[in-house]
Design brief:
hydrolase; Pept_tRNA_hydro_sf; peptidyl-tRNA hydrolase activity; Rossmann fold; globular; alpha/beta; Pept_tRNA_hydro; 7 strands; seven-stranded mixed beta sheet; Pept_tRNA_hydro_CS; about 190 residues
């Protein structure tokens, strides 16, 4: 029987936040669902969920967007993991990353949260940091803008031109991680873009 994977995009709920840098993880989940023609339904674990497949006969995917705020993402993720019976090593968390330049994707399993409160809360709720992550680079603000304000701003005009490519590449990274494993996905997505 095919494995089931939970793929969670971190972000904040509501129209005020949907186009912000902090919600790029949820944009990736939307892309994965759109590729499969799936819509989202409300789930009792405080999330919107689409159940689908990587491709016919392959892994089952539970695509999820918590409806809680970013800093309390752990409850919905742990609730979904329990509901579907999914172990942390098959929970892919997709999130924005300040310490990676915009237009860059990095993958890892485990390690610290790098000051990302959503990732911190997920690790706390799951009782482990050992889950795969697809980290979507948003870069740091230039000048004196606070990082906390930067992540809650919409992407700039120049960034918006490349955003569909970045979101598509991150969705590709999720699919490859599940299909071929972390190392293969890292080798492809950590290479410099040509």
């Amino acid at each position: 029987m095919a494995e089931t994977w939970l793929v969670v995009g971190l972000g904040n709920p509501g129209p005020r936040y949907e186009a912000t840098r902090h919600n790029v993880g949820q944009m990736v989940i939307d892309e994965l669902a759109a590729r499969r023609g799936e819509g989202f339904k409300a789930h009792k674990a405080n999330a919107r969920v689409a159940e689908t497949w990587l491709r016919p006969g392959a892994a089952k995917l539970i695509l999820a967007k918590p409806t809680s705020f970013m800093n309390v993402s752990g409850g919905p993720v742990a609730g979904l993991a329990k509901f579907y019976g999914i172990a942390p090593e098959r929970i892919v968390v997709v999130h924005d990353e300040l310490d990676i330049p915009f237009d860059t994707i990095k993958l890892k399993t485990g390690g610290g949260h790098g000051g990302h409160n959503g990732v911190r809360d997920v690790a706390k709720a799951l009782g482990t940091a050992d889950f795969p992550r697809v980290r979507v680079g948003i870069g740091r603000p230039v000048g004196r803008q606070e990082a906390a304000d930067w992540v809650l701003d919409p992407f700039g005009a120049a960034e918006r031109q490349n955003l569909p490519i970045l979101v598509g590449d991150a969705a590709d990274a999720v699919e490859q991680l599940i299909d071929e494993g972390l190392l293969a996905a890292q080798q492809r997505h950590h290479a410099p873009r040509v």
